[in-house]
Specification:
Order of helices and strands: HHHEHEHEHEHHEHEHHEHHHHHHHHH
Strand order of the largest sheet: 2-3-4-1-5
Strand content: 5-15%
Structural class: alpha/beta
Distance between the termini: 75 Å
Oligomer: single chain
Low-confidence stretches: none
Radius of gyration: 27 Å
């Protein structure tokens, strides 16, 4: 029998009730949908979408425990249709005896292909199982529409700094209780940076650091010592969690920083580690709009062509397409003006609500609408010289509000020049 010291600290600290879950108050708080599901025992199939170590598996186990439903757990990495069908058959029998549909929890559900996901549809529809999927990838891209329409997606957020610091203290205290050794971590920042918001990764790091010194006379561990230990033990690449987000972050930041050499290096790291080529291509699609933007609009076309192509080509040749696109994005001029504009506009809409559309901009397909002056006095741009006439297109309450500000690059300088000619002072 294993000693309690052999049980990983992260497993010991795993929450067993919804009150113990950290950082997902929008789901587990007093009015949170997951809490309401548990309290009312009105479960429906769902998908948890969020970064590693944010509580997806934990929430599934808590739901199972509190709803008194049997839990079947499989991983999409190591299981296939055969395993799914076996669980469904067993679940059907279980349903007959208990009267409650058991829960089938599928970790990394985005790694199931279409036929594997399709094998779940009938069981979910018939209510033989309550499906809980966990994914680190956007379900809109990775889950087939038929299955997505039968589930509710809930987003889990990375843990905030305050929560992570609390977790470091809890893990340290528990380690002291287990080992009877008083060790203290003086600087938390290296652990916080290493974890990237992943609670499991953070606890594992705390345990690793404390174990390193548990048989010494040391009492206080410095930030430099923590960095040394963590750097020496970092995995080469873990596409299922650990460095998955760190390396894609380094890759995108290299593109943003116009360093094709570094971008190619990080791309090679991901490819050598077996990263999903579609995941890489999707991130470059985002970067093409967020980082290159209007400074080189063709970047989005190139990135989209790459995304479509890798779905057809596959490995190992996909590396050539990905490499070409990464270099192209890295050497492109950069602008985040469109990215900033939509973010500012979204924030503005949240604050100002649904402002009325000006009458002259409204559609007027019926005589009643025409009598109410819908569309009245609207000036059709193509009837004027240069296909332009100065018109007001914003609601009256926010006239003069500006979201788009041209970036300082060749392409957008020309855009700004044209806008200034047309609008005089509006886009100066």
């Amino acid at each position: 029998m294993n000693s309690h010291l052999d049980i990983p600290l992260a497993e010991i600290l795993r929450p067993t009730s919804i009150e113990e879950v950290l950082g997902q108050e929008h789901l587990t708080g007093k009015e949170g949908p997951i809490r309401k599901m548990i309290e009312n025992d009105t479960l429906s199939s769902l998908i948890f979408w969020g970064p590693p170590g944010t509580g997806k598996t934990t929430l599934a186990e808590i739901i199972s425990t509190h709803s008194k439903r049997k839990l079947y757990k499989i991983s999409a990495i190591s299981s296939g249709v055969k395993e799914v069908r076996e669980v469904i058959e067993e679940a059907k029998k279980q349903n007959l005896f208990s009267g409650k549909s058991p829960i089938l929890f599928i970790d990394e559900i985005h790694r199931f292909n279409k036929s594997q996901q399709d094998s779940l549809l009938h069981a979910v529809e018939k209510g033989w199982i309550i499906l809980i999927g966990a994914t680190t990838e956007n379900p809109s891209f990775e889950v087939v529409p038929a299955l997505l329409s039968r589930t509710q997606v809930y987003v889990l957020n990375p843990l905030e700094k305050e929560k992570l610091e609390t977790l470091i203290g809890t893990a340290t205290k528990k380690h002291q209780e287990r080992t009877k050794k008083k060790l203290f971590i003086k600087e938390k920042e290296p652990l916080l940076q290493y974890s990237g918001g992943d609670a499991r990764k953070l606890i594992n790091a705390v345990e690793l650091v404390l174990n390193h010194y548990k048989n010494t006379d040391k009492k206080n561990i410095s930030g430099k010592e923590i960095q040394t230990i963590l750097q020496e033990t970092s995995p080469v690449y873990d596409k299922n969690g650990e460095q998955h987000y760190d390396i894609i972050s380094a890759f995108i930041k290299s593109i943003r920083g116009s360093d094709p050499n570094a971008a190619i290096y990080w791309l090679a790291r991901m490819l050598a580690g077996g990263e999903d080529i579609k995941f890489i291509a999707r991130r470059m699609l985002i970067s093409a709009s967020e980082d290159v933007g209007l400074a080189n609009p063709n970047a989005l076309v190139v990135a989209n062509a790459c995304f479509q192509a890798v779905n057809v080509i596959g490995n190992p040749e996909a590396r050539i397409l990905l490499g070409e696109t990464a270099v192209y994005l890295a050497v492109s001029p950069k602008s985040n003006s469109a990215y900033n504009a939509i973010n500012e506009a979204m924030d503005f809409v949240k604050k100002t609500g649904n402002l009325a559309v000006p009458l002259h901009l409204r559609n007027a397909p019926t005589s009643l609408m025409q009598n109410l002056n819908y569309g009245k006095n609207y000036r059709y741009a193509h009837n004027y010289d240069g296909n332009f006439v100065e018109e007001e297109f914003l609601p009256s309450k926010i006239i003069g509000t500006r979201f788009y500000k041209a970036g300082d690059n060749t392409k957008e300088k020309k855009i700004k020049e044209e806008l200034t000619k047309k609008w005089k002072n509006k886009y100066r």
